Structures are given as C-alpha cells and as structure tokens.
Amino acid sequence: MTSSVLVAGSFINHTRCISDHLEELAPSVKMLSVCDADEALSLLDKEPVNLLIIDACLRGNLDGFDLCRTIRSSSQFGHLPIILLLAGSLSLERSKGISAGADLLLQRPVVKEELCKMVRLLLEWSLNRVDSKATTGARVQPLRHLQSVS
Q: What distance in Å separates the CA atoms of residue 31 and residue 18, rounded to the nearest whole number?
C-alpha cells in the first residue's frame, strides 16, 4: 500500500530537500509538495494524504502554526499526523507548535536519518490507526506523546 506525505513549505529548496531526504522511502511513499497553506488545504480535498510535514515559517494567509491549527480543527483531516518543522529551538516556537496540535516538532536543518525514522513511525501509526478503527469501530486517540525531537 502506498502512503502519501504532503510537504508544505514556502521555499522550493526546503520542500525539495525534505523530498530528497525521504527518497529512500519510495516507492511505498508518494511525495506531494505545496508552497502555501491554501494549496495544502486544496490538495487535502483532492488527494488522500497519510502524513503532513509543515514548515512553521510557511508564507501566505496562514503560517505553519495556523495551518496546523486549521487542519487539527477539521473533522475530515484532524486525525492526520503532523510534523512541524521549526526554524530554531526557542521554547516559544516549541510551545506554539505544541499548542497548534503538531504530533512531532523537528528543528531545521533536518537530519535525514531522523526524518526518515519519524516519517516511518508516524505512517505506521497512521495506517494501524485506520486499520484498528475499521476493524473494531473504536475511536483511536490522536498521537500526542512524540512532542519534540531535538
């Protein structure tokens, strides 16, 4: 089964770098890239997505924190795991990321091995969550125990 990862970042270099880092997960992972929050929300309506990677410094009407909050408050997409990329390790930025509903906070520049490991983990969790809900009808709680990786 192919999983889809949506990367939302303002700079093509950042989204390309993330996609390149995750290249080793292909062909089991399909990469989708957008440059702003409006594109991300539009793509979510059109494509099945299993995981989002959002740059906190996203440009446009919504920054990465706002996009994360918007997705988290959606009844249709609020269950999706979200990795939020932070520009620094400031506690204020980390606090905003946690408040926005991110499942995992990663500091840029991202370490390839760390990113691949976290994406695999969150995709596995996401797929198991869907399988569990489908077979038991149980409501699985959102992932909230992986708040930060430094």
A: 9
Using the 8-state DSSP alphabet, how is residue 75 labeled? T
- Fold designation for 3-149: Rossmann fold (3.40.50)
Question: Could you state, in order of their start, the residue ranges of all structural domains in the chain?
Answer: 3-149
Supply the pTM of this predicted model. Answer: 0.83
Round to whole Å and give the CA distance between 126 and 91: 28
3-state SS assignment for residue 74: coil
Per residue in 51-71, pLDDT (tens digit) is 999 999 998 889 999 999 999
Interatomic CA distance for residues 1 and 51, integer angstroms: 14
| Three-state secondary-structure class, residue 99 | helix
112 HSE (CA, 13 A, CB side):
9
